Structures are given as structure tokens and as C-alpha cells.
Amino acid sequence: MNKEKIFFGNENDFVKLSDKYDKNKLNISFNRIAFIFFTFILVLFIFSLKAVYLTGKKLPQNNIISSKKEIRNNILDRNGNILAKTILTRNIGINPNLVINKETLLIKLKILFPDKNYKLVEKNLNGKKFFYFAEELDPENFEKLIMLGDKSLIPENRVTRIYPQKNLFSHIIGQIDNENNGISGIEKSFDKNLKNSNNDLKLTVDLNLQYLIREELIKFQNVFNSIGSAAILMNSKNGEILSLLSLPDYDINKRQLLEDEKFINRATKGVYELGSVFKTFTYAIGLNEDTIDPDTEFKNLEKKIYCSKFLIGEYDEKIPSDLTAEQILIRSGNIGSIRIAQKVGQEKFQKFLNDLGLLSTLDFDIEEIGTPIKFNWGKCKLATSAYGHGITTTPLQLAKGYSIISNGGYNIKPTLIFDENKRDIRYDQIISEDTSKKVNLALRKIVNTKEGTAGFANIDGYEIGGKTGTAQKSNSGGYSRNKINTFASIFPASDPNYVLVVMLDEPKPNKDYIYEYKDGSGWKIKGTQFNTAGWTAVEVAGKIIERIGPILATKY
Questions:
Q1: Which residue has the higher pLDDT, 238 or 65?
Q2: β-pairing, 201-202 with 75-76?
Q3: What is this structure's pTM?
Q4: Using CA atoms, how far apart are residues 171 and 184, in angstroms rounded to an integer?
Q5: Which of 96, 195, 237, 254 has the fewest Cβ atoms within 10 angstroms?
Q6: What is the pLDDT of residue 95?
């Protein structure tokens, strides 16, 4: 018998049987390989699930860089300084369930990071939940931990938004949530741009100016023991905001509850009766309507008048009964301001305040904006509004109003967004340039004459003008003894480029503070019993302009 061939029929039948045998053999081999591969994948999957389970937490998917959308663009000041930036940070966590030898692991960790709180680390190791051992590690230290080769050490990459300036721009920049979405400030208003644009977002603010102004605000908040304060520095000709501050502020890197009232943005969202700073608007509309001129005389002005059942008086009994229109503004006369407003008439007066943007919600770059309280106009409301009582607005709106009054009468749009193409845009003219010049001259006299209320702001070389405002804070059913003190200033008064509004919330007199007169006399006075804007907000504004003046003179 031929042992090499076995026939089951003819030779052709042998060939067909042989082909089937080879094919079956191939299929069996493939199935074995597929089974082994499937088993490997299944084991790997089960092990992965177990690892995730043992960590006691879900993998931080939102912290892994997976797309461009998770990288928010930088926010810069007008000079290119970084105010907000997204970085990749590295964290190392520990899964106690994977620790083989706790003592050995602790020794290794102590060698690398001797300053850690190892009592807390040991406590966490004795638990069963995943915990972070070190966060936001630099590449070198991250590598050191990885090189330990301990399977209980769990690496994690995370996208982090950092704010190098901490508190300095908290009310402007705002915050983001854990999902990388803006929830306040610029971060919210320009959320899509910051996620999808290829360009950084440049703001109009100046880092150096912001720092200096904040330093002075903090100092004087302690001097006058106020519960809060605000300051706005604006280019009066184009609306660019060079600095905007509200105290108290907070470190943006450490999130704060937006509902916490103490962190309200007093500059933009705080709505206040600001007092006599409104007298400037009364004077301006009187001039613009040709109802008065600076020399128009008002004789026998009463010290007190009744409006309905309400008594209105002068803040200072020493104010003369005979005053010109300009002197009414300089001496801050209540009754005189009422008489000017009555000459103008309610309709024109109301329209003018609306045109200045004082009575409605301002269109602005961040949504933290206050809305002035609505009221019904009448004879008494016209009277009280003339001197800033019973009428509310925000410090930002006040800054806009003073910008229009001082820049030749042209409307401007306050902005935080730097745009080279819109820096010189002038909108409609609200008052004449002649009216603007006359108002600026009067504001200057408030600072540099003995009759004025803002002598402490007469800083040599800066030609400051401005108006004080002292108002009682309203509460349910009336007014408290607490005050809002404001100084709205312009400089240089002959051709104003800047408006600075300083507001102090509930300041107190300081009996130990040394006031220095700036008239060259060298005369000083220690403390005061007065708690008016002339003794508080004016002093703060003067010190601020003294510090920021050199920067403004050289850079802008």
C-alpha cells in the first residue's frame, strides 16, 4: 500500500478533500487567535473598570485637554500684561486601595516632599477614597513622583485657568465654573470669543494704574473705616476705562460666592443716591438751554423751603442768600439748584438726564450692571433731583455723565474692550462746547477757591476740577445716618482728558488723620468732626491723582 496517498475514489476526489481539510485547519487557527485576543481585551477592560472603581471617583474627563474649546484665550491689559491665562497643570493622587506598603510609600514621599502635612496624608491613606497628594506640580516634581513607580500614585492632567494679578481685576475679569464656562464679568460676557477665537482679548485697563489706585483705596478704606469703596478712571473723550475697582475684592483664583453681598461690584452694579454731584448736571442744562449764564443772579434764596410736606434746607447755613448761578454750584447750594431746575422745567430736565444715560440701565461689557430706581416725576421730584436727592444711579453712569459734560458735550460709550478702530469715535452732541467750557471752569473753581468744597484735591500741576456729593443712605421707609461720599473729578480742567470718580460707602471721620492743604501755605490740620465728601472722597481722589498723574502724563 502506498502510505503517502489514500484514495477514496479517484484522484480528483482526493484533491477536493485535501482542500477542505486545509480550509478547516485555517479557520480553527483564526478562531483560536480571535478567542485569545477577545479574552485579552475583556481582561484588560475588566481591569480598567476595577481600577476606576478602586479610585473611588470618576476619571476627570473635563480636565483632560481634548479640544481647542477647553483652552480659553488670554485676557490682557492694554499693554499686553496677562490678566487671565489657561495652563496645563499636573496632579498626583493616591488610591489607598492600591498601596502595597504604606510605610515604604511614606518614606519615599517624605524624601521628595518633606514639607507636606503627613499626618493628613496618613489619615487619608488609612481611608479607602482617592485623594490628591500634590496639585499643580511643575514638570520636574511630577516626574519625580512618577519615577517612584508606585501603582497607587495616579497621575492626572488638568486644564487650569489662572489669574496672575489675583484680586486686582476680580470685578472686571469675573469667574468660570468647573465646566470651563464663564459665569461672571468678562469671562462670561465674552465666553464664546475666549473659547473659539484665535486671538487674545485685550482690555482698556492699565495694570499699573489699577495697582496704584487700589493701593490708595485700601489705605483710605482703613483711614475712614468704610465698608466699601469704588473708583473709576475713564478717558473722557472716548469712554475707555483705564481703571475700575470695587472693594472689598477677592482672589479670583479662589472662587467666591457671587451671592455674597459684600463682593458686589460697587462701581457698576451698586445703585446709590450720590447727592450733590448731580448739581453739575443742573447747572449744565440751565446753561445749555440759555435759562441762565454763569453770572445770572439769584436774590433772597431761602434757607428752607417746603415741597408738599417735606422740608428742604441747605447743607450749610452759612451759604449766602444772594448768589450767581456759578456760585450756587461752587458753594453747593440746594435751594439755588432747585431754582435753576425750575427755570429749565421738568420735561427738559428729565430728558437731559436721560440723554446722559443716568436714569436707565447702561449698555456695558459686563452684565453686573445696576438699574436706577424708577420714580414718578412731579414738582417735588424735580426739586430734589436738582440737588441729587431721591434719585439714584451707578458710579459708572456718573463717570459717563461727567465725561460728556467735560469733553465738549459729546456722548461716549464706556468700554472695557480695547479697539484701535473705535478709539476716536464721537457720538451725538448733547450740550454745546461753550456750555462744556463754562461747566469745566466752575468745576475748577470748586477745587482751587476758598468757597469751593474740594480744596484737598488742588494738586499742583494737574489742574483738577470736580464736584463733591454727600448723601444719606436710604433704607426701608427712610434714610439712615450712614453716608455715601463721592467726588467726581476732571483733569486737566482746561481740556479734560480724564474723569475720576471716587465713592466711599459708609465712611467715618478720623480724628487722627493729618490733612494738608495744597495751596502752598503748608497749613495742616489734624482730624475733623465732619463726615462729608470734601473731607473724605476728595482727599482720596487727590492722593490717587498725585500717584497716577506721572503715568498718565508720560503714557497717554
A1: 238
A2: parallel
A3: 0.81
A4: 9
A5: 254
A6: 95
